Amino acid sequence: MKQTNVKPAEGKLGIMVVGNGAVATTFMTGVLMTRKGLAKPIGSMTQYDKMRVGRGAEAKYLKYDEIVPLAKLDDIVFGCWDVYPQNAFQSAMYCEVLKEKDILPVRDELEKIVPMPAAFDKNYAKRLDGDNVKPCTTRWEMVEALREDIRNFKAANDCARIVVLWAASTEIYVPVYEPVHGTLAALEAAMKADDREHVAPSMCYAYAALTEGAPFIMGAPNTTVDIPAMWELAEKTCMPIAGKDFKTGQTLVKSGFSPIIGTRCLGLSGWFSTNILGNRDGLVLDEPANFRTKEVSKLSTLETILRPDVQPDLYGHGNDEDTQYYHKVRINYYPPRNDNKEGWDNIDIFGWMGYPMQIKINFLCRDSILAAPLCLDLCLLSDLAARAGRYGIQRFLSFYLKSPMHDYTQNEAPVNHLYQQYTMLKNAIREMGGYEPDEEID
After folding, report:
1. Using H for helix, E for strand and C for coil, what is the string for 346-399?
2. Distance separating alpha carbons of residues 391 and 317, to the nearest angstrom
3. What radius of gyration do the chain's Cα atoms show?
4. pLDDT of 408 higher than 60
5. pTM higher than 0.70 for the full model?
6. What is the rounded CA–CA span in Å between residue 59 and residue 67?
Protein backbone atom coordinates (compact mmCIF):
# COMPACT_ATOMS: atom_id res chain seq x y z
CA MET A 1 0.00 0.00 0.00
CA LYS A 2 1.37 3.43 -0.95
CA GLN A 3 1.76 6.21 1.59
CA THR A 4 -1.49 8.20 1.76
CA ASN A 5 -3.05 10.81 4.00
CA VAL A 6 -6.02 8.55 4.77
CA LYS A 7 -6.34 7.81 8.46
CA PRO A 8 -6.12 4.09 9.28
CA ALA A 9 -9.30 2.10 9.98
CA GLU A 10 -8.52 1.54 13.65
CA GLY A 11 -11.10 0.42 16.20
CA LYS A 12 -14.71 -0.61 15.72
CA LEU A 13 -17.01 0.78 13.03
CA GLY A 14 -20.60 1.16 14.17
CA ILE A 15 -23.12 0.81 11.34
CA MET A 16 -26.44 2.21 12.51
CA VAL A 17 -29.23 1.26 10.11
CA VAL A 18 -32.54 3.09 9.87
CA GLY A 19 -34.97 0.22 9.30
CA ASN A 20 -34.76 -3.38 10.43
CA GLY A 21 -36.64 -5.02 7.56
CA ALA A 22 -35.67 -7.24 4.65
CA VAL A 23 -32.71 -5.22 3.33
CA ALA A 24 -31.23 -4.44 6.76
CA THR A 25 -31.49 -7.97 8.17
CA THR A 26 -30.19 -9.58 4.96
CA PHE A 27 -27.21 -7.19 5.09
CA MET A 28 -26.51 -7.82 8.79
CA THR A 29 -26.95 -11.60 8.59
CA GLY A 30 -24.68 -11.82 5.54
CA VAL A 31 -21.88 -9.88 7.24
CA LEU A 32 -22.15 -11.97 10.43
CA MET A 33 -22.22 -15.26 8.45
CA THR A 34 -19.24 -14.15 6.33
CA ARG A 35 -17.27 -13.36 9.49
CA LYS A 36 -17.85 -16.93 10.65
CA GLY A 37 -16.71 -18.29 7.28
CA LEU A 38 -20.22 -19.68 6.63
CA ALA A 39 -21.13 -17.45 3.66
CA LYS A 40 -19.45 -15.42 0.94
CA PRO A 41 -20.11 -11.68 0.40
CA ILE A 42 -20.86 -12.10 -3.30
CA GLY A 43 -21.87 -8.90 -5.06
CA SER A 44 -19.69 -6.73 -2.83
CA MET A 45 -17.08 -4.86 -4.83
CA THR A 46 -15.07 -3.93 -1.73
CA GLN A 47 -14.66 -7.65 -1.03
CA TYR A 48 -14.12 -8.96 -4.58
CA ASP A 49 -13.38 -6.34 -7.24
CA LYS A 50 -9.84 -5.78 -8.48
CA MET A 51 -8.80 -2.61 -10.24
CA ARG A 52 -5.70 -1.43 -12.03
CA VAL A 53 -3.33 1.02 -10.38
CA GLY A 54 -0.32 2.40 -12.23
CA ARG A 55 0.38 2.20 -15.96
CA GLY A 56 2.54 0.12 -18.27
CA ALA A 57 5.24 -1.86 -16.45
CA GLU A 58 4.02 -0.37 -13.16
CA ALA A 59 0.43 -1.64 -13.59
CA LYS A 60 -0.97 -3.91 -10.89
CA TYR A 61 -4.47 -5.27 -10.32
CA LEU A 62 -5.35 -4.98 -6.64
CA LYS A 63 -8.36 -5.43 -4.40
CA TYR A 64 -9.72 -2.26 -2.81
CA ASP A 65 -8.30 -3.04 0.63
CA GLU A 66 -4.85 -3.42 -0.93
CA ILE A 67 -5.10 0.16 -2.22
CA VAL A 68 -6.86 1.93 0.66
CA PRO A 69 -7.35 1.11 4.36
CA LEU A 70 -10.91 -0.27 4.61
CA ALA A 71 -12.61 -1.29 7.84
CA LYS A 72 -12.60 -5.06 8.31
CA LEU A 73 -15.82 -7.04 8.63
CA ASP A 74 -14.66 -8.26 12.04
CA ASP A 75 -14.66 -4.65 13.29
CA ILE A 76 -18.30 -3.90 12.37
CA VAL A 77 -20.96 -3.47 15.09
CA PHE A 78 -24.61 -3.18 14.06
CA GLY A 79 -27.39 -1.10 15.56
CA CYS A 80 -30.77 -0.02 14.17
CA TRP A 81 -33.98 1.91 14.55
CA ASP A 82 -37.41 0.59 13.52
CA VAL A 83 -41.11 1.21 14.12
CA TYR A 84 -41.49 -2.52 14.83
CA PRO A 85 -39.83 -3.78 18.06
CA GLN A 86 -38.72 -7.24 16.81
CA ASN A 87 -34.99 -7.91 17.05
CA ALA A 88 -32.91 -8.60 13.93
CA PHE A 89 -33.28 -12.39 14.26
CA GLN A 90 -37.07 -12.21 14.53
CA SER A 91 -37.22 -9.76 11.62
CA ALA A 92 -34.92 -11.85 9.40
CA MET A 93 -37.13 -14.91 10.02
CA TYR A 94 -40.29 -12.90 9.38
CA CYS A 95 -39.01 -11.38 6.12
CA GLU A 96 -38.29 -14.84 4.65
CA VAL A 97 -35.56 -13.59 2.33
CA LEU A 98 -32.99 -15.98 3.76
CA LYS A 99 -33.46 -19.63 4.64
CA GLU A 100 -33.51 -20.62 8.28
CA LYS A 101 -30.21 -22.52 7.87
CA ASP A 102 -28.52 -19.26 6.83
CA ILE A 103 -29.86 -17.34 9.83
CA LEU A 104 -29.65 -19.77 12.76
CA PRO A 105 -25.82 -19.91 12.99
CA VAL A 106 -25.75 -16.20 13.91
CA ARG A 107 -28.99 -16.18 15.91
CA ASP A 108 -27.29 -15.07 19.14
CA GLU A 109 -25.68 -12.06 17.48
CA LEU A 110 -28.86 -11.07 15.63
CA GLU A 111 -30.97 -11.28 18.79
CA LYS A 112 -28.72 -8.68 20.40
CA ILE A 113 -29.56 -6.18 17.62
CA VAL A 114 -32.73 -4.70 19.11
CA PRO A 115 -34.17 -1.69 17.30
CA MET A 116 -34.27 1.61 19.12
CA PRO A 117 -37.60 3.43 18.83
CA ALA A 118 -37.86 5.16 15.46
CA ALA A 119 -38.33 8.86 14.79
CA PHE A 120 -41.51 8.37 12.80
CA ASP A 121 -44.42 10.30 11.32
CA LYS A 122 -47.22 8.12 9.99
CA ASN A 123 -48.12 10.76 7.40
CA TYR A 124 -44.87 9.92 5.62
CA ALA A 125 -45.55 6.15 5.42
CA LYS A 126 -49.26 5.57 5.94
CA ARG A 127 -49.05 1.81 5.37
CA LEU A 128 -46.73 1.20 8.33
CA ASP A 129 -48.33 0.50 11.70
CA GLY A 130 -45.57 -0.10 14.25
CA ASP A 131 -45.63 1.31 17.76
CA ASN A 132 -41.88 1.31 18.54
CA VAL A 133 -41.83 5.06 18.05
CA LYS A 134 -40.18 7.96 19.88
CA PRO A 135 -42.62 10.18 21.81
CA CYS A 136 -41.28 13.32 20.11
CA THR A 137 -43.68 16.19 19.70
CA THR A 138 -41.49 18.24 17.34
CA ARG A 139 -38.94 17.65 14.59
CA TRP A 140 -36.21 19.26 16.69
CA GLU A 141 -36.97 16.82 19.53
CA MET A 142 -36.53 14.00 16.98
CA VAL A 143 -33.09 15.37 16.09
CA GLU A 144 -32.02 15.63 19.74
CA ALA A 145 -33.28 12.12 20.56
CA LEU A 146 -31.49 10.62 17.55
CA ARG A 147 -28.24 12.40 18.39
CA GLU A 148 -28.45 10.93 21.88
CA ASP A 149 -29.04 7.45 20.40
CA ILE A 150 -25.91 7.79 18.26
CA ARG A 151 -23.78 8.97 21.18
CA ASN A 152 -25.07 6.22 23.48
CA PHE A 153 -24.57 3.48 20.86
CA LYS A 154 -21.06 4.66 20.11
CA ALA A 155 -20.10 4.67 23.79
CA ALA A 156 -21.84 1.39 24.72
CA ASN A 157 -20.19 -0.50 21.85
CA ASP A 158 -16.80 1.19 22.11
CA CYS A 159 -16.96 2.34 18.47
CA ALA A 160 -14.25 4.56 17.02
CA ARG A 161 -16.50 5.70 14.18
CA ILE A 162 -20.17 5.56 13.13
CA VAL A 163 -21.89 5.42 9.73
CA VAL A 164 -25.67 5.89 9.46
CA LEU A 165 -27.45 4.08 6.62
CA TRP A 166 -31.11 4.56 5.63
CA ALA A 167 -32.56 1.16 4.65
CA ALA A 168 -36.12 2.01 5.64
CA SER A 169 -39.21 2.65 3.56
CA THR A 170 -39.70 5.31 0.92
CA GLU A 171 -41.33 8.42 2.36
CA ILE A 172 -43.97 10.45 0.55
CA TYR A 173 -42.58 12.83 -2.05
CA VAL A 174 -41.23 16.07 -0.57
CA PRO A 175 -40.49 18.58 -3.34
CA VAL A 176 -37.48 20.83 -2.76
CA TYR A 177 -38.83 24.01 -1.15
CA GLU A 178 -36.20 26.73 -1.27
CA PRO A 179 -37.43 28.81 1.73
CA VAL A 180 -36.85 25.77 4.01
CA HIS A 181 -34.36 23.59 2.15
CA GLY A 182 -32.18 26.35 0.69
CA THR A 183 -29.97 27.04 3.72
CA LEU A 184 -28.98 25.27 6.92
CA ALA A 185 -30.31 28.14 9.05
CA ALA A 186 -33.72 27.89 7.34
CA LEU A 187 -33.85 24.11 7.82
CA GLU A 188 -32.94 24.38 11.51
CA ALA A 189 -35.58 27.07 12.00
CA ALA A 190 -38.17 24.84 10.30
CA MET A 191 -37.20 21.91 12.54
CA LYS A 192 -37.57 24.07 15.64
CA ALA A 193 -40.90 25.41 14.35
CA ASP A 194 -42.01 21.78 13.76
CA ASP A 195 -42.66 22.28 10.05
CA ARG A 196 -43.88 18.74 9.32
CA GLU A 197 -44.74 19.46 5.70
CA HIS A 198 -41.22 20.34 4.62
CA VAL A 199 -39.12 18.43 7.17
CA ALA A 200 -39.36 14.66 6.73
CA PRO A 201 -38.33 12.32 9.57
CA SER A 202 -35.42 11.12 7.39
CA MET A 203 -34.03 14.67 7.44
CA CYS A 204 -33.87 14.41 11.24
CA TYR A 205 -31.78 11.22 10.96
CA ALA A 206 -29.42 12.83 8.45
CA TYR A 207 -29.06 15.99 10.54
CA ALA A 208 -28.39 13.95 13.68
CA ALA A 209 -25.82 11.73 11.96
CA LEU A 210 -23.85 14.57 10.39
CA THR A 211 -23.90 16.62 13.59
CA GLU A 212 -22.55 13.63 15.52
CA GLY A 213 -19.70 13.17 13.02
CA ALA A 214 -21.16 10.22 11.13
CA PRO A 215 -21.43 9.94 7.32
CA PHE A 216 -25.04 9.52 6.14
CA ILE A 217 -26.21 7.31 3.26
CA MET A 218 -29.72 7.61 1.81
CA GLY A 219 -30.79 4.24 0.43
CA ALA A 220 -34.33 5.29 -0.54
CA PRO A 221 -35.39 7.94 -3.08
CA ASN A 222 -36.30 10.43 -0.32
CA THR A 223 -35.36 14.10 -0.79
CA THR A 224 -33.47 13.97 2.55
CA VAL A 225 -29.88 14.93 1.71
CA ASP A 226 -30.65 16.17 -1.79
CA ILE A 227 -31.08 19.74 -0.59
CA PRO A 228 -28.62 22.66 -0.26
CA ALA A 229 -29.23 22.87 3.51
CA MET A 230 -27.84 19.35 4.00
CA TRP A 231 -24.91 20.05 1.67
CA GLU A 232 -24.12 23.05 3.86
CA LEU A 233 -24.31 20.90 7.01
CA ALA A 234 -22.05 18.23 5.44
CA GLU A 235 -19.48 20.94 4.60
CA LYS A 236 -19.75 22.46 8.10
CA THR A 237 -19.26 19.09 9.84
CA CYS A 238 -16.75 17.82 7.21
CA MET A 239 -18.81 14.65 6.74
CA PRO A 240 -19.59 12.66 3.57
CA ILE A 241 -23.16 12.22 2.32
CA ALA A 242 -24.31 9.81 -0.37
CA GLY A 243 -27.65 9.16 -2.02
CA LYS A 244 -30.12 8.39 -3.22
CA ASP A 245 -31.89 5.03 -3.61
CA PHE A 246 -29.98 1.74 -3.89
CA LYS A 247 -29.45 0.76 -7.53
CA THR A 248 -30.37 -2.91 -7.32
CA GLY A 249 -32.51 -4.33 -10.13
CA GLN A 250 -34.25 -2.57 -12.96
CA THR A 251 -32.28 0.68 -12.80
CA LEU A 252 -29.02 -1.27 -12.73
CA VAL A 253 -30.15 -2.94 -15.97
CA LYS A 254 -31.19 0.43 -17.41
CA SER A 255 -27.92 2.22 -16.56
CA GLY A 256 -25.92 -0.69 -17.97
CA PHE A 257 -28.01 -1.54 -21.02
CA SER A 258 -28.89 1.93 -22.33
CA PRO A 259 -25.18 2.63 -23.09
CA ILE A 260 -25.35 -0.31 -25.55
CA ILE A 261 -28.11 1.53 -27.47
CA GLY A 262 -26.25 4.83 -27.28
CA THR A 263 -22.80 3.49 -28.15
CA ARG A 264 -24.20 1.57 -31.13
CA CYS A 265 -26.05 4.76 -32.31
CA LEU A 266 -29.43 3.02 -32.40
CA GLY A 267 -32.65 4.99 -31.97
CA LEU A 268 -35.11 4.71 -29.08
CA SER A 269 -38.88 5.19 -29.44
CA GLY A 270 -39.90 4.12 -25.98
CA TRP A 271 -38.90 2.27 -22.82
CA PHE A 272 -41.59 0.81 -20.57
CA SER A 273 -40.55 -0.56 -17.18
CA THR A 274 -42.75 -2.28 -14.64
CA ASN A 275 -42.00 -4.11 -11.38
CA ILE A 276 -43.94 -6.49 -9.20
CA LEU A 277 -42.86 -7.03 -5.62
CA GLY A 278 -44.53 -7.99 -2.38
CA ASN A 279 -42.31 -7.04 0.56
CA ARG A 280 -42.86 -4.14 2.98
CA ASP A 281 -41.25 -1.80 0.44
CA GLY A 282 -43.93 -2.85 -2.08
CA LEU A 283 -46.66 -2.26 0.49
CA VAL A 284 -45.44 1.28 1.21
CA LEU A 285 -45.02 2.03 -2.51
CA ASP A 286 -48.64 0.98 -3.10
CA GLU A 287 -49.50 4.40 -1.64
CA PRO A 288 -49.48 6.89 -4.58
CA ALA A 289 -47.69 9.65 -2.64
CA ASN A 290 -44.84 7.25 -1.77
CA PHE A 291 -44.67 5.84 -5.31
CA ARG A 292 -44.23 9.39 -6.63
CA THR A 293 -40.91 9.62 -4.76
CA LYS A 294 -39.70 6.37 -6.33
CA GLU A 295 -40.96 7.30 -9.80
CA VAL A 296 -38.97 10.54 -9.83
CA SER A 297 -35.75 8.66 -8.99
CA LYS A 298 -36.32 5.85 -11.52
CA LEU A 299 -37.28 8.20 -14.36
CA SER A 300 -34.13 10.29 -14.12
CA THR A 301 -31.73 7.53 -15.21
CA LEU A 302 -32.39 7.21 -18.92
CA GLU A 303 -32.73 10.90 -19.73
CA THR A 304 -29.11 11.71 -18.85
CA ILE A 305 -27.70 8.81 -20.91
CA LEU A 306 -29.78 8.94 -24.13
CA ARG A 307 -30.18 12.66 -24.76
CA PRO A 308 -32.40 14.12 -27.48
CA ASP A 309 -30.52 17.44 -27.35
CA VAL A 310 -27.31 15.63 -28.32
CA GLN A 311 -28.77 13.12 -30.82
CA PRO A 312 -32.18 14.39 -32.01
CA ASP A 313 -32.42 11.82 -34.84
CA LEU A 314 -32.02 8.96 -32.38
CA TYR A 315 -33.79 10.15 -29.22
CA GLY A 316 -36.05 13.01 -30.31
CA HIS A 317 -39.13 10.92 -31.12
CA GLY A 318 -41.78 8.86 -29.42
CA ASN A 319 -44.06 10.98 -27.27
CA ASP A 320 -46.91 13.36 -28.09
CA GLU A 321 -44.69 16.41 -28.44
CA ASP A 322 -42.26 14.42 -30.58
CA THR A 323 -39.35 15.81 -28.57
CA GLN A 324 -38.19 12.66 -26.80
CA TYR A 325 -38.74 8.91 -26.60
CA TYR A 326 -41.59 7.73 -24.37
CA HIS A 327 -40.39 6.56 -20.91
CA LYS A 328 -42.80 4.99 -18.42
CA VAL A 329 -42.11 3.40 -15.01
CA ARG A 330 -44.57 1.38 -12.92
CA ILE A 331 -44.37 -0.53 -9.61
CA ASN A 332 -47.11 -2.94 -8.58
CA TYR A 333 -47.57 -4.39 -5.12
CA TYR A 334 -48.10 -8.14 -5.47
CA PRO A 335 -47.84 -9.96 -2.09
CA PRO A 336 -47.19 -13.53 -3.39
CA ARG A 337 -43.75 -12.44 -4.65
CA ASN A 338 -42.53 -11.15 -1.26
CA ASP A 339 -38.88 -10.07 -1.77
CA ASN A 340 -38.53 -11.79 -5.15
CA LYS A 341 -39.04 -8.77 -7.34
CA GLU A 342 -39.68 -9.13 -11.06
CA GLY A 343 -38.73 -6.35 -13.43
CA TRP A 344 -40.04 -6.28 -17.00
CA ASP A 345 -38.61 -3.93 -19.58
CA ASN A 346 -40.02 -3.45 -23.05
CA ILE A 347 -37.69 -1.39 -25.21
CA ASP A 348 -38.75 -0.16 -28.67
CA ILE A 349 -35.69 0.74 -30.70
CA PHE A 350 -35.13 1.54 -34.36
CA GLY A 351 -32.18 1.05 -36.68
CA TRP A 352 -31.04 1.57 -40.26
CA MET A 353 -33.53 3.71 -42.22
CA GLY A 354 -35.79 3.87 -39.16
CA TYR A 355 -36.82 0.19 -39.12
CA PRO A 356 -38.28 -0.82 -35.72
CA MET A 357 -36.98 -3.57 -33.40
CA GLN A 358 -37.75 -4.63 -29.85
CA ILE A 359 -35.79 -5.76 -26.80
CA LYS A 360 -37.46 -7.50 -23.85
CA ILE A 361 -35.73 -7.94 -20.51
CA ASN A 362 -37.24 -9.96 -17.66
CA PHE A 363 -35.13 -9.71 -14.50
CA LEU A 364 -36.35 -12.06 -11.77
CA CYS A 365 -34.24 -10.62 -9.00
CA ARG A 366 -34.15 -10.74 -5.23
CA ASP A 367 -34.31 -7.21 -3.97
CA SER A 368 -32.53 -7.64 -0.64
CA ILE A 369 -29.91 -10.06 -2.04
CA LEU A 370 -28.91 -7.32 -4.50
CA ALA A 371 -29.16 -4.50 -1.92
CA ALA A 372 -27.14 -6.13 0.89
CA PRO A 373 -23.71 -5.92 -0.83
CA LEU A 374 -24.47 -2.31 -1.82
CA CYS A 375 -25.11 -1.52 1.86
CA LEU A 376 -21.74 -2.99 2.81
CA ASP A 377 -19.85 -1.16 0.07
CA LEU A 378 -21.55 2.17 0.73
CA CYS A 379 -20.83 1.97 4.47
CA LEU A 380 -17.19 0.95 4.05
CA LEU A 381 -16.52 3.51 1.33
CA SER A 382 -18.31 6.34 3.18
CA ASP A 383 -16.23 5.55 6.26
CA LEU A 384 -13.13 5.58 4.03
CA ALA A 385 -14.14 8.95 2.54
CA ALA A 386 -14.53 10.44 6.03
CA ARG A 387 -11.05 9.21 7.05
CA ALA A 388 -9.68 10.63 3.78
CA GLY A 389 -11.11 14.05 4.63
CA ARG A 390 -13.64 13.95 1.78
CA TYR A 391 -16.91 15.65 2.69
CA GLY A 392 -20.15 16.79 1.10
CA ILE A 393 -21.68 14.93 -1.86
CA GLN A 394 -19.69 11.78 -2.68
CA ARG A 395 -20.15 11.59 -6.44
CA PHE A 396 -17.83 8.59 -6.69
CA LEU A 397 -20.53 6.48 -4.97
CA SER A 398 -23.01 7.18 -7.81
CA PHE A 399 -22.32 3.66 -9.11
CA TYR A 400 -24.41 2.25 -6.25
CA LEU A 401 -27.32 4.66 -6.45
CA LYS A 402 -30.38 5.06 -8.66
CA SER A 403 -30.59 8.81 -8.60
CA PRO A 404 -27.07 10.13 -7.97
CA MET A 405 -26.69 13.35 -6.04
CA HIS A 406 -25.50 16.43 -7.93
CA ASP A 407 -25.60 20.19 -7.46
CA TYR A 408 -28.71 21.04 -9.46
CA THR A 409 -28.47 24.67 -8.27
CA GLN A 410 -25.43 24.96 -10.57
CA ASN A 411 -27.14 23.04 -13.42
CA GLU A 412 -24.82 20.08 -12.86
CA ALA A 413 -26.12 16.96 -14.60
CA PRO A 414 -25.98 13.66 -12.70
CA VAL A 415 -23.83 10.88 -14.14
CA ASN A 416 -26.12 7.85 -14.63
CA HIS A 417 -24.05 5.93 -17.20
CA LEU A 418 -22.90 2.80 -15.31
CA TYR A 419 -19.45 2.62 -16.90
CA GLN A 420 -18.73 6.31 -16.34
CA GLN A 421 -19.82 5.81 -12.72
CA TYR A 422 -17.43 2.86 -12.40
CA THR A 423 -14.59 5.05 -13.70
CA MET A 424 -15.44 7.71 -11.08
CA LEU A 425 -15.40 5.03 -8.35
CA LYS A 426 -12.02 3.64 -9.43
CA ASN A 427 -10.44 7.08 -9.81
CA ALA A 428 -11.50 8.11 -6.29
CA ILE A 429 -10.08 4.92 -4.78
CA ARG A 430 -6.84 5.35 -6.76
CA GLU A 431 -6.53 8.92 -5.53
CA MET A 432 -7.20 8.00 -1.89
CA GLY A 433 -4.64 5.20 -2.25
CA GLY A 434 -1.94 7.60 -3.41
CA TYR A 435 -2.07 6.57 -7.07
CA GLU A 436 -2.82 8.66 -10.12
CA PRO A 437 -6.58 8.84 -10.94
CA ASP A 438 -5.70 8.06 -14.52
CA GLU A 439 -8.94 7.09 -16.31
CA GLU A 440 -10.82 9.62 -18.40
CA ILE A 441 -14.59 9.94 -18.03
CA ASP A 442 -15.89 10.60 -21.52
Report:
1. EEEEECHHHCEEEEEEEEECCHHHHHHHHHHHHHHHHHHHHHCCCCEECHHHHH
2. 41
3. 21
4. yes
5. yes
6. 13
